[in-house]
Amino acid sequence: MHLGVLHAGNQTQADIHRPIGAVAVAVAVAVAIVSRERVLASLNVVFLSRAVTLAEAKQRYVSELQTAAREMVTALESESAPDRAKED
Predict the structure, then answer these.
(1) More confident of the two residues 9 and 85
(2) Fewer Cβ atoms within 10 Å of its own Cβ: the N or the C terminal residue of the chain?
(3) pLDDT of amino acid 8
């Protein structure tokens, strides 16, 4: 199992309550769910940077996202193990 952390910042104009021309900054932290060298999915938390800084988000969410990803990979691999045994 491989776990990595991806964090990125994106700018959007999706907040319709802001003045015309204003830009809301969306920031995200993400953890890939990887099993048998294949990326299956990712867990992401997206928020406005005015609410939480990227540093705060990494501190708050990355560990929990990694734990959840590990649990998902473990569950997926244990469910697929009997299927692989049937194929052999």
Answers:
(1) 85
(2) C
(3) 47
What percent of the chain is predicted at pLDDT more than 90?
Answer: 35
The H or E element containing residue 86 is helix 54-87
List pLDDT tens digits, range 78-87.
Answer: 987 665 556 5
Residue 61 burial (C-beta neighbours within 10 Å; 0-12, 13-18, 19+): buried
Q: How far apart are CA 49 and CA 75, in angstroms?
A: 33
CA atoms of 85 and 60, how far apart (whole Å)? 40
Question: In which residue are the tokens 């406005």 written?
Answer: 48
Strands (E), the chain: 5-12, 24-35, 38-48
- Inter-residue contact 66 to 31 (CB < 8 Å): yes
